[in-house]
Design brief:
The protein folds into two domains: about 110 residues, 2-Layer Sandwich (Nucleotidyltransferase, domain 5); about 200 residues, Hexokinase, domain 1, CATH 3.40.367.20. The protein is of the alpha/beta class. The longest helix has 25 residues. The chain has 13 helices and 13 strands. Helix 7 packs antiparallel against helix 8.
Length: about 325
């Protein structure tokens, strides 16, 4: 059996595959909450506990920087070591990779129905890029080698945030008082969306009905409350927060496209984008994406797609686990 996993700060999706099968056809898969578990080993044991499966190979996409087949997760108190996981799995070969790298391996497996086109552009043969806001912010590059796209992980979501106008100058000062250093992940994430709303409240931008204040203050997932109130029109402050979030998301997606020269397209993944499609579609994301001064004509040619399938990272991890040498980069240990 082959084991693949997408390990996130909120949930972990694990699946078993028959050797030689399609990466999109698991024989068993489950989503499990990440935070209640003390470690990935514990979570894997729980997943396998109800089966007789003994995986011989496993690949996990993990939200965090992976170096030397080890990582300390960014949004979980876990230190994960591939060798220790191998021992847990009875000696199975284990490869750890960044979750956006896993998603990047999954992009070629997606069907047209799995994507929403935000901007058709005019793609050229060349690199692609991936950006994904969820519990945190991930970014990755897909390097075109003339025959295929090779995913390359990054931790670009932790780069310094750059404000674009007076309101964002106010925002970064507010965030500095709260956190000190301000990265793009501080804004482009679930916790970041909640902070947009708190900033709008503290600086008195937009109307906030009493019911909206109560809902935000009491909801265990305040970012979800902001999204719901923005989309149903019940709170102007929530709408302003989400619109600003989407504008900055588009701007950073454009930054990623420039850094990686992603003339083959930019893919927007993560859990937030599919939930806020009405705002993504209204043009502000694409305007911020393309608004790069002298480089605007270049950005206008780059397609932008939203990934609708929340299993893409799992499919990518499975493709690498199932497919050497075809799906794995040369020299990779899988």
């Amino acid at each position: 059996m082959i084991l693949a996993g997408d390990v996130g700060g909120t949930k972990t999706h694990l699946a078993l595959f028959e050797p030689g099968s399609s990466p999109r056809r698991p024989v068993l898969d489950r989503k499990l909450p990440s935070r209640p578990q003390p470690s990935l080993e514990s979570l894997v044991r729980e997943f396998l506990g109800g089966t007789s499966a003994r995986p011989t190979r496993a690949v996990f996409g993990i939200a965090g920087p992976v170096v030397g087949n080890r990582t300390e997760t960014t949004n979980l108190p876990w230190a994960i070591d591939g060798e220790e996981l191998s021992a847990t799995l009875g000696g199975a070969e284990v490869r750890l990779m960044n979750d956006l790298e896993a998603t990047a391996w999954g992009v070629p497996l997606l069907a047209p129905a799995d994507l929403e086109v935000l901007h058709p552009g005019a793609p050229e043969p060349g690199n692609r890029a991936l950006i994904a806001a969820g519990t945190g912010l991930g970014e990755a590059q897909l390097v075109w080698d003339g025959a295929r796209w090779l995913p390359v992980a990054s931790e670009g979501g932790h780069a310094d945030f750059g404000p674009r106008d007076g309101l964002e100058d106010e925002l970064i000062r507010w965030l500095r008082e709260k956190y000190g250093r301000v990265s793009y992940e501080r804004l482009l994430s679930g916790p970041g969306l909640a902070d947009f709303y708190r900033f709008m409240r503290d600086t008195e931008h937009g109307e906030e009905p009493p019911a909206a204040r109560e809902r935000f203050d009491q909801d265990p997932d305040p970012a979800a409350a902001v999204t719901a109130m923005a989309l149903d029109g019940s709170c102007e402050r929530a709408r302003l927060a989400l619109e600003r979030f989407v504008g900055i998301y588009g701007a950073e997606a454009g930054n990623v496209a420039l850094k990686f020269l992603a003339v083959g397209g930019v893919y927007v993944g993560g859990g937030i984008a599919p939930r806020v499609l009405p705002v993504l579609r209204d043009g502000r994301f694409v305007r911020a994406f393309t608004g790069k001064g002298r480089l605007t004509p270049l950005l206008e040619k780059i397609p932008v797609h939203v990934i609708l399938d929340d299993r893409t990272a799992l499919w990518g991890a499975a493709a690498v686990a199932l497919g050497p040498p075809a799906a794995a980069p040369l020299g990779a240990r899988v």
